[in-house]
Amino acid sequence: MELSEKLIIEIKKNSIYRIEENLRMIFICFDKITEKELWNQPSKKGIAIGNQVTHIVGNMTQYLVSTLGQKNYNRQRDKEFEINRGICKSSLINELSYTIKESIITINKLSLENLLKKRKVQVYYLSGIGCLIHAVEHFSYHTGQIALLTKNITNNELGFYDGIDLN
Hints:
This protein is mainly alpha-helical. It has a single domain (3-154), classed as Four Helix Bundle (Hemerythrin (Met), subunit A), CATH 1.20.120. The protein contains 6 helices and 2 strands. It has helices at residues 3-32, 35-38, 49-68, 89-109, 112-116, 128-154; strands at residues 118-121, 124-127. α1 (3-32) runs parallel beside α6 (128-154).
């Protein structure tokens, strides 16, 4: 196997691992909050957990499923922050899970050419690797915000690594 093939495999494998880790952590957070807490805005300018998840879905769909997977998608980013209540936790989790499943399918299909090809996304001009890195880091960023909000709501540890010695 050529070095470039090994590199592609590692990029895909580690991107998928991080995406799945973020999804696992969001599931844990969702188990700890109520339907009402899902849509509590933490401050005047703060973003509710429900809106953060809706925003993650929009971003992952735009950058991975649509741009890299070459599927049509008309994202309405501003509306991701306008939604308040009305969407229950289970529906939101199903939507996020479906988006992650589609994102992983897209990642697994990526070729070297697709990873190197430049394309316009939002106001950016990114390679496929750039799109992939953006989507993963954006998901991680919002997962961290969701974790912090969940800790603040519950005043408890989240237990992401319970039973695992990280030392």
